[in-house]
Design a protein that fits this description.
The chain is mainly beta. Helices cover about 0% and strands about 35% of the residues. It is built from no helices and 17 strands. The strands form two sheets. The protein has a 15-stranded mixed β-sheet that branches. A two-stranded antiparallel sheet has the order 2-3. The two termini are about 35 Å apart.
Length: about 260
């Protein structure tokens, strides 16, 4: 589902939608069943390949899976609506040249919603597109793209969220401006995380006067019962630049760390 590379600009990535629908019978809600994916998905935006002018990379695509039922009706014992993803998933924006906008080459959404559970392994990459300019020509262009348009979001209203995946929602690099890092959230009855998460701001060139690094993003792990476990590195740092980007924040089940708390 990747967008094509182009001399004058990259094409946008497309997406993947997966749903199972519930149904009501008498006074009960029947879950539609599980969604299981064991495959890699490439939905990156295409890159601009030309060498002159202002050329924009394409927007990253999206991945969405819903295994849904209304838990308030009561579930039938022994059935479930879980989402289980295993693979490498990439919805990053494409690279630009001499970009003068940080809203291009952003990413789409990555959403896994399983009413009775979500499991994710492998990797999710949803970085803003970087800019290839390296001429040191000041701050009028050469902007890395933000990764802030949508979240990477895992949710299980009446089940556990378990993730061992490496997740990156970093801002794109650019010699004049780095893009802002995005947001990652996991909500469930219990949340268990072991994979590294990266929402750092993109880097600019500190040698260019007036260059600014991107701000770090936000990571939120929330357990409905106050139970769970979280381990693995989390990068919420701002990007380098003549002016460095601000640090983001990390709500780690029970406590918050980072300047953005």
């Amino acid at each position: 589902a990747k967008g094509g590379d182009g001399f004058s600009g990259g094409g946008d990535g497309d997406g993947l939608y997966l749903y199972t629908y519930d149904a009501q019978m008498a006074d009960m809600e029947l879950p539609g069943g599980d969604i299981v994916v064991e495959a890699d998905v490439d939905a990156r935006g295409g890159s601009a390949t030309g060498n002159t002018g202002t050329l924009y990379g394409g927007y990253g695509g999206w991945i969405e899976a819903y295994a849904d039922y209304d838990e308030y009706y009561g579930a039938i014992t022994g059935v479930s609506s879980k989402v289980v993803f295993s693979g490498n998933f990439d919805i990053s924006g494409g690279s630009s040249l001499n970009s003068d906008s940080q809203s291009v080459a952003d990413t789409g959404y990555f959403t896994l919603y399983g009413t009775s559970g979500v499991q994710l392994s492998g990797s999710v990459t949803a970085d803003g597109g970087s800019d290839r300019a390296a001429d040191g020509a000041g701050t009028a262009n050469g902007y890395g793209s933000h990764s802030t348009q949508q979240w990477v979001w895992l949710e299980a209203p009446v089940g556990d969220v378990r993730s061992s995946a490496r997740i990156s929602k970093a801002g794109g690099n650019g010699e004049a401006r780095g893009g802002d890092g995005g947001d990652v959230g996991m909500w469930g009855i219990n949340v268990y995380r072991t994979g590294a998460i990266n929402v750092r701001g993109g880097a600019a060139n500190p040698a260019i006067s007036g260059s600014t690094g991107g701000d770090g993003g936000w990571v939120e792990l929330f357990s409905g019962t106050g139970s769970g476990a979280s381990s693995g590195a989390v990068n919420i740092s701002g990007g380098a630049g003549d002016t460095e980007g601000d640090e983001g924040g990390f709500w780690n089940l029970f406590t918050c760390v980072g300047a953005n708390c």
